[in-house]
Design a protein that fits this description.
The protein has 371 residues and is mainly alpha-helical. It has helices at residues 2-8, 37-53, 61-70, 79-85, 93-102, 106-112, 117-127, 133-144, 148-161, 168-181, 185-198, 203-212, 223-246, 255-282, 290-307, 313-325, 329-342, 347-367, and strands at 23-24, 130-131. The two termini are 32 Å apart.
């Protein structure tokens, strides 16, 4: 069974949620007032340095504290670098205390909170991503690229050129899709997690991570690590379903098309949940965990139901595995037959044929009277 588990488990996700319209406008500015010629010159010098700082990524806590200490007499001279790079962390009470000790006042700290990851996400939600023309052009070029290798490289270039962009979460999610097309699960996870660090509600990243983490080829680890990965996948899947419920209709989209789009996305999530429960059932020491098998069965049945005419052969094959482990032989044969029907000439068909043959032999042996 191990060969089929490795060969068919990492399928492509045809329906993902891409970012919508891009608003072409400038970024936010600080309201600090210049009071002397010396401060003006200092700020102009800092602005020049800020251009170079864009390539360095968001500020860390240590970098921000050091920056505040260095500029505590004229805090506004630190603002261009903060605006250029943004913050890579949230302003916790502990960080506020450190900033105050370094020389920051309440107004300065209040302004800083507008550059945290969560603040950028909320601004994007309420007004749409506010980006420059250069960002919009690079992003639209990235979305239009069809070659996965080029898409990966363009995503890296975008992150280098626009490290504080409100579009960066979407860029990393698009990069994760490219890695998925290359059948590279570890890098799918790495790019997807970068996306969620910037926007925990990014549906595309949630879909990709919840479908990738429970795949058997990524679970050849210790039991403790395996449990952790399965739990993380389940959490991502649960959040993905919540976010799918919040998705709005697109312009000119009919009610039927809107519901179908949501159902197809949810189908992929339930398929991921099915794999989570199936793998948990296999972790039982003496025999498969029947409660987890029951959850896996229901998840795969829901995934198939919501796919509405675009069923996935892998979902049927996994459902067949679940039925076999539950000793539901007729149901298993039916599921494997559907998997075979949907994937003619593939490795799925080969293994489905084998499993159907084994199940029929098992049924025949069960009917043969004992001598």
């Amino acid at each position: 069974m191990s060969k089929i588990r490795k060969s068919i488990s990492f399928g492509s996700m045809a329906t993902v949620l891409l970012a919508g319209c891009v608003l072409l406008s400038g970024g936010m500015g600080w309201s600090a007032q210049q009071t002397t010629d010396q401060m003006v010159l200092a700020q102009q010098a800092a602005q020049g340095k800020a251009k170079k700082a864009k390539a360095e990524g968001p500020l860390t806590e240590k970098e921000l504290i050091k920056l505040v200490k260095h500029n505590k007499k004229h805090l506004n001279t630190a603002e261009p670098e903060i605006e250029a790079r943004g913050l890579g962390f949230e302003i916790s009470p502990e960080v506020e205390t450190q900033l105050q000790k370094a020389g920051a006042d309440e107004a300065f700290i209040a302004n800083l909170k507008g550059y945290t990851p969560s603040a950028r996400v909320e601004k994007a939600k309420s007004t749409g991503p506010q980006v420059s023309q250069a960002e919009a052009n690079a992003y639209n070029q990235l979305k239009a690229e069809t070659d996965p290798d080029k898409r990966i490289q363009e995503a890296n270039t975008f992150a280098l050129n626009f490290p504080n962009s409100t579009l960066l979460s979407y860029v990393y999610a698009i990069q994760a899709v490219a890695y998925q097309e290359k059948n590279d699960p570890p890098d799918v996870i790495a790019a997807g997690e970068k996306s969620l660090e910037l926007n925990p509600d990014n549906v595309m990243a949630l879909l990709l991570l919840s479908s990738t983490l429970p795949q058997p080829q990524l679970l050849n680890v210790s039991d403790a690590e395996k449990v952790k990965r399965l739990n993380t996948a389940e959490n991502y899947a649960t959040k993905a379903l919540q976010q799918i419920d919040k998705i709005g209709k697109q312009p000119n989209e009919t009610d039927a098309a809107f519901q179908q789009r949501k159902d197809q996305m949810a189908s992929g999530v339930y398929s991921s949940l099915g794999m989570v429960h199936l793998e948990r059932s296999r972790m039982a020491i003496q025999a498969p965990d029947q409660a987890e098998l029951g959850r896996a069965e229901q998840s795969y049945k829901t995934a198939i139901e919501k796919s509405k005419g675009s069923e996935n052969a892998v979902d049927y094959y996994r459902l067949g595995e679940v039925y076999s482990m539950e000793d539901k032989l007729d149901e298993a044969i039916s599921a494997f037959s559907n998997a075979k029907r949907l994937a003619p000439g593939s490795v799925i068909e080969q293994y489905a044929d084998r499993d159907i043959k084994n199940l029929k032999e098992k049924k025949s042996q069960a009917k043969t009277p004992k001598s």
